Amino acid sequence: MIRKVKTGIPGMDEVLHGGIPERNVVLLSGGPGTGKSIFSQQFLWNGLQMGEPGIYVTLEEHPVQVRENMAQFGWDLRKYEDEGLFAMVDAFTSGIGKSKEYEKYIVHDLTDIREFVDVLRTAVKDIGAKRVVVDSVTTLYINKPAMARGVVMQLKRVLAGLGVTSILVSQISVGERGFGGPGVEHGVDGIIRLDLDEIDGELKRSLIVWKMRGTIHSMRRHPFEITDEGIIVYSDKVLKRKAIVGY
Hints:
- By secondary structure, this protein is α/β, with parallel strands linked by helices.
- It is 26% helix and 26% strand.
- It has helices at 12-15, 36-49, 63-71, 78-82, 99-102, 113-127, 148-161, and strands at residues 4-5, 20-21, 25-30, 54-58, 86-90, 105-106, 131-135, 165-171, 190-199, 202-212, 222-227, 230-233.
- Strand 7, helix 7 and strand 8 form a beta-alpha-beta unit.
- The longest helix is centred in the middle third of the chain and has 15 residues, at 113-127.
């Protein structure tokens, strides 16, 4: 039997028929404003409530800002960081400023994927992490899109080898049909795509599980909302949007 890791996000585990298969590396793809960071942070927070240590790799926001953003949903990380159950990997500041005084895990050179992997591996082993989020993986190859699949495959080998269940946040532009880089969809075990569409004059959020190795899952597009307590997925509802040729 494949063990499944519950996301704890209301409605999402029903969509996934029980959760994400353990050790899967999942690409969480979406455009601006779709809720990618909130989804991934909620995944980590819920893991902490289940006794599963987690790591958040921040590539596009200052670690302090990430902590403040999570606290707005009632997800206060201080206790878990103090107890060695949660760690932030700072791949944003390069150790410039006060980060070097407060952050334990810092990636100084993003062009060196080996350093990135080494820092991540150290953090995972130090706290015995079970869940990892990289937000966003697109930053690692944004200037070299041809490297996208190679970077994702390298991360997958490391993360799966460490026994963690991972979410790689992937950015796409508004209206983009792909998943955030050439070939990345073939280098991961699962893809969850978040969308924000104008329907009848109103912006509506929805998600669809494009693939997920190791489990059956809903093949429907489900609406979701972002509330003061995080994301709620309406697994019993379906959102219909205009079909896009080739998508």
